[in-house]
C-alpha cells in the first residue's frame, strides 16, 4: 500500500507500508506428543527459564530432570489477566496438594517480576516453585505466546504482552497427558482430568 505525503514546502514523497509479517504460529503440544525441552536455573538468585543449558551451570535442571521420577503439572500464569487471573490461580491452588498426594509435582512459569512472584507464592500458600519465563521463551515454544498474534489485540481489558492461559501435564516419558489452552479466557482446567493424567503419567 502506498501513501503520498506533502511537506510544508510542497515536496511530495511516497511511502510504501508493508503489511506486518506474521510469524509461523507454534501449535501447543497435544496429548501424546513430546513436550518441548527447557531448563530452569538461577540468575543472580532470580529463578528463570532457559531454552539451553549452560555447561558451567551445575545447578540448571532440564524438564527431563524434572519428570525423571515424577509427572509434572506445568502452568503458565500472569497476574495481568485481570479478573481471569484469580480463577486460574485458585485452580492451581486446589491442584497443588492433590498432585503432590498422587506423586506428582507442580511448576508455574510467569512473566512477572521477582517481587510479584513472591506475592503469587503467598497467595498460593503452597510449596510450588515459580520461575520467570525469560523473554517468553518457554511459552513461545509451547505455543502459548506470540508477538505477532497478541492477546491484547482480541481480548478486552488486556493491554500488554501476556501468555495464553494454559496448563499441561507431562508424564515421566515427557509426553503430554493433558493440555489445556484457553484462547478465549472463559474456562479453567478440569481438576479431575488433570489428576487422572498425573496418575497415568507416573
From TrEMBL:
Any Pfam family the entry gives: AhpC-TSA
Ranges of residues in domain Thioredoxin: 29-202
Gene Ontology molecular function terms on file: antioxidant activity; oxidoreductase activity
Coiled-coil zones: none
Highest taxon of the lineage: Bacteria
InterPro entries in the record: AhpC/TSA, Thioredoxin-like_sf, Thioredoxin_domain
SUPFAM superfamilies listed in its UniProt record: Thioredoxin-like (SSF52833)
Gene3D superfamilies linked: Glutaredoxin (3.40.30.10)
Name the UniProt record assigns to this protein: Redoxin domain-containing protein
Native species: Dyadobacter sp. 676
Lineage, opening ranks: Bacteria, Pseudomonadati, Bacteroidota, Cytophagia, Cytophagales
